[in-house]
Specification:
Helix content of chain A: over 70%
Number of domains of chain B: 1
Largest sheet of chain A: none
Largest sheet of chain B: 6 strands, mixed
Distance between the termini of chain A: 47 Å
Helix content of chain B: 25-40%
Shape of chain B: globular
CATH architecture of chain A: Orthogonal Bundle
Structural class of chain B: alpha/beta
CATH architecture of chain B: 3-Layer(aba) Sandwich
Mean pLDDT of chain B: 95
CATH topology of chain A: MetI-like fold
Bound molecules: adenosine-5'-triphosphate, magnesium ion
Number of helices of chain B: 9
Number of strands of chain B: 10
Oligomer: heterodimer
CATH class of chain B: Alpha Beta
């Protein structure tokens, strides 16, 4: 029991490695910000493409969404980081992770937006167009606000997944939270930094998860 | 008859194989209220929706104050839609905005009015339909009749030349119908040109200048309300009216 506490819940080791972990956390936060922002924008464009009545827009959008959803994100990441240099395209670990997960998440956000937009009754668009609004204005002021509100829990849920996904970045030696914790573990021969990292993830995501289930309960009511 | 405010010329509309409108010709004079009646599926809504091109006509012309709305560019279409107000059976208010914001949106985005100007105009229009005191409410807090009056205010705020109504009272509880019809009567008295699809026969008798009976994508008969209701000439009109009255 003593050993267990010393190896997993060693406060001294935790305090000692905390600065390293905080650096890792900062990297995770930057990564999440980039992937979430890019994913929300990319996903919107993919969704609009998939819902377009122009076939030459709709089909490619569907193909891209399906392809990205079927491809494991780790495969995509390693291909971009280790495969592309063979084509003379070497990029930094941060850029590789951001691009790989942006692509992956655009597809998921796109599916959520698509469901949201389809949940807005056609009469809303008709009323707006009848008042002389353009397609873009109708989308921006009438359809999207309602669509996003209708799928907010799913958007939040997916955002939680994004945060979890970024821990895969440790594979390409990007010093985010998990990588930093694992480094601290090997330096201290102690598992406590990993426990601490898990706690940080929990602290970060638990409020979001709570929020999601509150929303879901409210929508169900 | 003076130059018509709305003129439908040889309008045809097909959905795939289905011919819904065949050669519709109709003129609505400035300040006139024309009622359109007819059985379900006769093409009344489709005709109305062609007048602002929510539905794309297959052929024919639709003149709003002399200008053809069919075949104009999409930017010209958005401008012309400002001249054609439309009121739907299901209201279609924007549920995520307050009542006054509903009435302001197109004024700001399509007419490019300033916020203050749009707000002032919106409040004046809400006053006209008797709902100024509900300006800051969300639409879902209102009764159906109130929602429909807001929808009318939303259309009026854009200063349209013609108003189209597609069964404006069909979704309402009977006790709420009167308030919407009163607003429409007031609109008619102020000189608005109106094309109304509705089966409110009593109101048609009282307020309409002309009644048009449609069936099978054709105008079968038209005339003053007394005449159409009391002495319909066409057999199909007689059959329809006896069914509606039964
Ligand atoms: N978008 C569409 N695609 C295919 N068919 C359509 C479409 N819209 C309408 N129709 C068909 O066109 C015909 C006329 O419909 P319309 O809605 O104009 O009739 P209506 O006279 O308004 O009937 P109601 O009194 O039931 O409202 C119907 O047979 C309908 O099924
Ligand atoms: Mg109809």
């Amino acid at each position: 029991m003593q050993d267990f506490i010393r190896l997993f819940f060693n406060l001294e080791v935790m305090a000692q490695t905390l600065p390293l972990l905080m650096q890792g956390l900062w990297m995770t936060v930057k990564l999440c910000a980039a992937v979430i922002a890019l994913g929300l924008v990319g996903g919107l464009f993919l969704a609009l493409g998939a819902l377009s009545h122009r076939r030459w827009l709709r089909w490619p959008a569907f193909a891209v969404i399906d392809f990205l959803r079927a491809l494991p994100p780790l495969v995509l990441l390693i291909f971009i980081y280790s495969g592309l240099p063979f084509a003379g395209l070497a990029i930094s670990p941060f850029a590789a992770v951001a691009v790989a997960f942006f692509l992956n998440n655009s597809a998921y956000y796109a599916e959520i937006y698509r469901a949201g937009i389809q949940s807005v009754p056609a009469g809303q668009t008709e009323a707006a167009r009848a008042c002389g609004l353009t397609t873009g204005q109708t989308l921006a002021h009438v359809v999207l606000p309602q669509a996003v509100r209708n799928v907010l829990p799913d958007l939040l849920s997916n955002t939680v997944e994004v945060v979890k996904l970024t821990s895969l970045a440790s594979v390409v030696s990007l010093a985010e939270l998990l990588y930093s914790a694992n480094m601290a573990r090997s330096l201290t021969y102690n598992a406590s930094p990993l426990v601490l990292a898990a706690l940080v993830y929990l602290l970060l995501l638990w409020p979001l998860v709570r929020l999601v289930s509150r929303y879901q309960r409210r929508l169900a009511a | 008859m003076s130059r018509p405010m709305l003129e439908i010329v040889a309008l045809e509309k097909t959905f795939g194989e289905l011919k819904v409108l065949r050669d519709i010709n109709l003129r609505v004079a400035t300040g006139e209220m024309v009622f359109v009646i007819g059985p379900s599926g006769s093409g009344k809504s489709t005709m109305l929706r062609c007048c602002n091109r929510l539905e794309e006509p297959t052929s024919g012309a639709i003149l709003i104050d002399g200008k053809d709305i069919v075949g104009c560019s999409s930017s010209a279409l958005n401008r012309m839609r400002l001249e054609v107000g439309m009121v739907f059976q299901g209201f279609h208010l924007y549920p995520h905005m307050t009542v006054v914001a509903n009435v302001m949106l197109a004024q700001i985005k399509a007419l490019k009015r300033s916020k203050d100007e749009a707000r002032e105009r919106a409040l004046a229009m809400l006053d006209r339909v008797g709902l100024r005191h509900r300006a800051e409410t969300m639409p879902t807090q209102l009764s159906g009749g109130q929602q429909q009056r807001v929808a009318i205010a939303r259309a009026l705020a854009l200063d349209p030349k013609v108003m189209l109504f597609d069964e404006p009272t069909s979704a309402l509880d009977p006790e709420l119908v009167g308030s919407v019809l009163a607003v429409m009567k007031d609109l008619k008295d102020s000189g608005m040109t109106m094309l109304v699809v509705s089966h409110e026969m009593g109101f048609a008798r009282e307020a309409a200048d002309r009644v048009v009976f449609m069936d099978g994508g054709l105008v079968v008969e038209e005339g003053p309300p007394e005449e159409i209701f009391a002495n319909p000439k066409a057999e199909r009109t007689q059959a329809f009216l006896s069914r509606v009255r039964a």
